[in-house]
Structures are given as structure tokens and as C-alpha cells.
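Hi C.,

You asked whether I'd gotten around to modeling the 139-residue construct. I have! Everything is below, sequence then structure, no commentary in between.
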Amino acid sequence: MGARVLLGKVGLDGHDRGLHVVARALRDAGFEVILAPLRQTAGQIAQAAVQEDARAVGLSSLSGAHRTHFARVAQALRDAGRADVILFGGGIIPPEDAEALKREGFRMLFGPGTRMQEIVEFLRRTLGPDAPREAARAS
């Protein structure tokens, strides 16, 4: 199996359709995807990333609370000694907020309409040799 990627939502945002679409695309591309339950705290997401030995964490937000929640996840991972985890996110994120989140450690933020292949290629580039190079094949 490929590199482990944890996907989750922080806070009360229950809109998870996009997260499931991303999870499917990453699995189809050979990544091992861990989908966290809805309505997690930043600490729970960080703890799951540590326990699952995730190489990347992708967060989704449609609630408008992305700056607070995403930053808290980044800090919780740093506090847990896992500043090496690659952070990325998606949702409705204005450009000025995206810049602030990049300063917090988010490598990429994807908006509505992003092609799934863009996310796959981002992770392949960012994870380097640990990332799967082609789609997983059914036996």
C-alpha cells in the first residue's frame, strides 16, 4: 500500500461529500487513506495522524472556521513532535486566508472545482519516493 494520508474535518462542519470524493481519488491512485470521523477536535486529528503514522493530513472546511481549526491542527501536530506531517486542505478558503494558512504550514489549499488529479499529483510530488506512482491494480 502507498503512503498514509489522513483526511478529516475539524469542528461542527458536517459537509463531508468532498472529503469522500478526495478519499476515493487518493485510494484509486494507490494511497492508503484514513478517513477520520466527523466533528473532530484539532487534538483528535493530530492524535489520529500520530497513531496512524500518517505522512500527510488533509483537512476540509466549508464552515468558515478554517483559519482557526486548520491552525490548531498544525499546532497540535507540532506539539506532538510531528511537524514533518505534510498539511493540505480544501474548501471555501479566500486567498488572504490561504496565505495565512500557508504560513501556518499548509503546503497547498484546494478550492471548489479542483480536479482530483491535481491533489494526487501534489501528494506524489510532496511525498516523493513514499508516494505511489501509479493507480493500485486489482488482483
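If it helps when you're writing up: The mean pLDDT is 90.

Thanks,
B.
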